[in-house]
Amino acid sequence: MRGAPGLAAIACTAIFIASAGADTPPPPGATVATLPEHFSKRVVATGPSNPHNMALGPDGVLWVTEQVTRRVVRVDPKTGEVSVAVEIADAVHSKGAQDGLLGLALDPNLLKNRGEDYVYVSMTYAAATPAPFPNRTLIRRYTYDPETHTLGFPVDILQGLPSSHDHQSARLLFGPDGKLYYSIGDQGANEQEYLCVPNEAQVLPTEAEVKSGDWRAYKGKILRLNPDGSIPSDNPVIRGVKSHVFAWGIRNTQGMVFSPNGKLFSVNHGPNSDDTVNLIVAGGNLGWPNVLGYRNNLTYAYANFSAASGGCDGLEDPAQNGTEAPSQVPVTPQSDFHDSDYVQPLKTLFAADPDKLKREFNNPVCADRGLYYICWPTIAPSSVAYYGGFRAGVPGWDHSLLVTSLKRGVLYRIRLDPTESVTIGDVEPLFRSQNRYREVVVAPDGRTIYVATDALGYGLATNDAGAPAFTLENPGSILAFTYDSP
Questions:
Q1: Would 8 be classed as within a structural domain?
Q2: 22 within 8 A of 300, measured Cβ to Cβ
Q3: Which position among 159, 220, 309, 415 has the lowest Cβ density within 10 Å, counted as fewest Cβ atoms?
Q4: Is the pLDDT of residue 465 over 90?
């Protein structure tokens, strides 16, 4: 839930019992100089209202969805001019929640004179039948007018998708196969305001549900769909059923990206620990909520509040320090989870330190207003971009993933081997500032990295001492980090 601005209290249902020796968590404060050598920083534009997704168009203009104001805007990276492409009145945003105008994908044939000048978005809308949740999510296609630079002729290609106030995920992108990919989080089930709601990230749709267009089982899934919203004929058959589901078992996947060789990478939020970098494969199961990070019984056990004996109502989740759950709540170790489709993560960002476990979840640096979660070993990964293949790019950066952090105000670089199957070494923190980094986009020449920042972030970012920050350096902005060396 740490990705959402404006939340007064953070809790989680994970029970941490020790820690794996994955990556050593960074200190909660600044871990790197503001700018590495040969890089400069420029504020491209200010004013976007909580950017959610951002994409670079073929005309060199940045497209941005504004979650709160429910607008799609275009930002000229040269002049900083911001123009409104469309205002979406029927999109719904709840104050302090993760719903609203969310995903954004540009058609691969945009501005190629093929009659496919399309822009796709995902958004929350009011449901005709509100129970049990008042809203749903849809994916909509707009047609771009290159003369007026506006979007029109909306067509809803897929409606009735799950929605709540939490864990929307909502990463929308085209794959090299011409299909749309979309991540749907677990909707915050079994946590905070949804503590008593069963987590259904492991629940798959039935054939009857698919035939009737009932998409409720799409919580905690990555979808693959045709551009018209239909189910591709070559989608994986999972447990005997073919649906939009491409992979499952995710908590909150806000970032996905394809590498040039067609591999799909994602980043996934952990609750107290173990944000993950994943390689997504057709039919793969990431294991949530039964598994978090590596399936090693060292970092996590599944505390299922929704199955508490005697009922869940009135229970409180004491797992902020990751040590216990009420006796009536069943707790299942990761070793009890068995699935032949399980795919372990490539990397965790980061696992808790077993020798410092108690302090990590009760760090006095973050005691102000009880915002201890800021010091937890999580970064809240909000997006991921692939870096490589540039003739005059940054030396040594080929085969890298760039991951933005909402909590740390840092861009992390993760090295991949040439086959892009494993990660190499430790992550490299870059571009530290007192901000919440929401989105990253790489310019076509590889020399400029664009980062969008949240406009809101009261107590949800860190200052240089590692404590909660109550002001942001560049709220609601587009930043450019440019490599200046020849």
A1: no
A2: no
A3: 309
A4: no
> DSSP letter string over 369-429?
GG-GGGGSS---EEEEEEE---TTS-TT-SSEEEEEETTT--EEEEEE-TTSSSEEEEEEE
Strand partners, 416: 423
Alpha-carbon radius of gyration of the chain: 21
Model pLDDT, residue 312: 94
**Structure confidence at residue 16 (pLDDT):** 38
244 in active site = no
> Residues, the chain, total?
486
The enclosing domain of 352 has a CATH number of 2.120.10.30
Q: Is residue 447 a part of any domain in this protein?
A: yes
Please report whether residue 308 resides in a domain. yes
The pLDDT tens digits of the residues spanning 2-34 come to 333 333 333 344 443 333 334 544 544 434 446
Q: Is the separation of the CB atoms in 435 and 474 below 8 Å? A: yes
Beta carbons within 10 angstroms of residue 37's beta carbon? 8
For residues 300 and 294, the answer to whether their CB atoms sit within 8 Å is no
Q: Let me know if residue 146 belongs to a domain.
A: yes
Tell me how many domains the chain contains: 1
Write out the residue range of the structural domain in which residue 464 sits.
14-483
Q: Which of 167, 244, 269, 399 is catalytic?
A: 167
